[in-house]
Amino acid sequence: MRADTITKDYVKDAGVFADIFNYYIYGGRQVILPEQLMERDSTKIALPYGAVGAVVPVQKFRDVQKLYAAMTDGKMQYVLYGAENQTEIHYAMAVKNNLYDALEYAGQVEEAAKSHRKEMKQRKEKGKTSAEKGRKIPDAGEFLSGFWAEDKLIPSITVTIFFGSEEWDGPLSLFDMMDLSDPDVLACMDNYHMRLIAPAQMSDEEIMKFQSSLREVMLFIKYSKDKENLSRVLTANEERFREVERRAADVIEAITNSGIKYKKEDEVVNVCQAIQDMRKESEQKKAMEIAGKLHEMGLDTEKIAQAVGYAVETVKRWPGLSDDSM
């Protein structure tokens, strides 16, 4: 649960969120700017149509959703972007994301209907007809659906970010979840393709397209179980890994459990130094264990120090290895 909370808070950052969709949609080009994103309530409630006006409340929770607004060709364009964070493989993710997008569109239709009903009610209360002011009179189909011919939906795009080091082996579409091969039946169905970002299935070149700290997060997670390649990546990208923002460091530690230590008040973390310190601490711990065994065998401090490769004065300070204990 801690990892889920940390990754969700991290992705909420406008810079990281924009980076996700700039990578997925535009191949890393900086088209979506953080200041063009507006936070939206991630709780979606839709009322599906039912017989004789019956409705069934449906409530789902997105991880993060933002509205993108930008001027294009002289008019404002809007797109809804949703991010779903996974720290474990979800084998029904295609259905989950499909439902989120469908509920989004159902909610937009309902909002349009409410808006039209409100306007017509206000005009009726004022004793005015639509024709008096040149207002449109909805036809039977528009009145029934509440969605008028000129109304437009705002596109909704959902991307799943997998914060795991293993490869995603779950289905990537609705068809992948079905045991159906009849081409005639499949031709009558609409597939839903899941949009996935998973570090283990990305090349280093692809990960380098990220411009935010998500680059360091993805690289570290990808090689977190491969010490040799992790060292290579840290060395090759040392300048950026020396100044990793705190939230990104929190994600790295929560996901990989690598033992990176840093102070609570640190705003940036030198991950390279933290890894070096961690390794030195691990090496010293092993040396102390060996020294303890040599001490039990009767070796003096100088010989023990020589055997484990540490200075005599250092070894003397280790528990049970001072001259007094000999």
Structure description:
This protein has helices spanning 2-12, 14-26, 93-125, 140-145, 183-187, 204-207, 214-222, 227-236, 238-241, 246-256, 271-296, 301-308, 312-316; strands at residues 37-39, 43-46, 58-61, 64-72, 75-86, 156-162, 195-197, 244-245, 268-269. Strands 1-4-5-6-7 form a 5-stranded mixed sheet, with helices on both faces. Strands 2-3 form a two-stranded antiparallel sheet. It is built from 13 helices and 9 strands. It is elongated, with a radius of gyration of 29 Å. A hairpin with a 2-residue loop joins strand 4 (64-72) and strand 5 (75-86). With 326 residues, it is an alpha/beta fold. Helices cover 44% and strands 14% of the residues.
Percent strand equals: 5-15%
Rg, alpha carbons: 29 Å
The SSE order reads HHEEEEEHHEHEHHHHEHEHHH
The class by helix and strand makeup works out as alpha/beta
How would the global form be characterised?
Answer: elongated
Whole-number mean pLDDT:
87
**Poorly predicted residue ranges:** none
Count helical runs. Answer: 13
Largest sheet properties: 5 strands, mixed
Number of strands: 9
What strand order characterises the main sheet? 1-4-5-6-7
Helix content, binned percent: 40-55%
Distance between the termini: 49 Å
